[in-house]
Amino acid sequence: MLVPFKSLPKDSRIWIFPSSEEIDIQKKAKIKERLIKFISDWTSHNKNLQASFELPYNRFIVVALNENLQNASGCSIDALMNLIQILEKEFDLILLDRMNVLYRDKSKNINYLTLKDFVKMVKSKSINSKTTVFNNLVTNKEEYMNSWEVPAIDSWHSRYFKIKN
């Protein structure tokens, strides 16, 4: 059951799928259409799931699920992942590669890097601990609202800024 994103409780489960590139207007419209249909019909053990989504910055697909009403089953999560795989293929996007980093450069543009390239840029000091990164490992709506877009030092990325003796 599709509901407005803002109406979901703060402990709603979150999945974030970062895109390798900005999603253009035509792709975004089709992705929204698919997500509306999917979430409207999304069930777990034949019970409707109360959920929603956002497409922030035309770079991310964020799906939220109110597990206070019904938990997602393995099959319902598989159905979501299947949809994301279909969107990847249909729109030629990378959405499921967890070995990437999205960050804001000095001009506030959002950039996509492999983790390996991110580490290289940290070592070369092209990126520092104050660089804004997207912490796509947040697990609930409250973390998403408060700890998703943060300085690198305040996320899992901080491990790359540790001084080694």
Description:
By secondary structure, this protein is of the alpha+beta class. It folds into 2 domains: 5-91, Alpha-Beta Plaits; 100-161, no CATH class. The strands form 4 sheets. The chain has a 3-stranded antiparallel beta sheet, with helices on one face. A two-stranded antiparallel ribbon has the order 2-3. A two-stranded antiparallel ribbon has the order 6-7. The chain contains 4 helices and 9 strands, in the order βαββββαββαβαβ. It starts with 12 loop residues before the first strand and ends in a 14-residue tail after the last strand. Helix 1 (25-41) packs antiparallel against helix 2 (74-91).
Question: What is the element layout, followed by pairings?
Answer:
Blueprint: E1 13-18, H1 25-41, E2 43-44, E3 47-48, E4 51-54, E5 60-65, H2 74-91, E6 100-104, E7 110-114, H3 115-123, E8 132-134, H4 141-147, E9 149-151
Antiparallel strand pairs: 1-5, 2-3, 4-5, 6-7, 8-9
Helix pairs in contact: 1-2
Which overall shape is indicated by the principal axes computed on the Cα atoms? Answer: globular
Largest sheet: 3 strands, antiparallel
Main sheet strand line-up: 1-5-4
Radius of gyration: 17 Å
Question: What oligomeric state do the depicted chains represent?
Answer: single chain
Please trace the helix and strand order, writing H or E for each element. Answer: EHEEEEHEEHEHE
Mean pLDDT: 94
The name CATH uses for the topology of the largest domain is Alpha-Beta Plaits
Separation of termini? 53 Å
User: What is the total tally of β strands?
Assistant: 9
In CATH terms, what is the architecture of the largest domain?
2-Layer Sandwich
Tell me the helix content: 25-40%
Helix-and-strand structural type = alpha+beta
Q: Are there runs of 5+ residues with pLDDT below 50, and where?
A: none
Beta-strand fraction estimate: 15-25%
- Domain count: 2
CATH class call of the largest domain: Alpha Beta
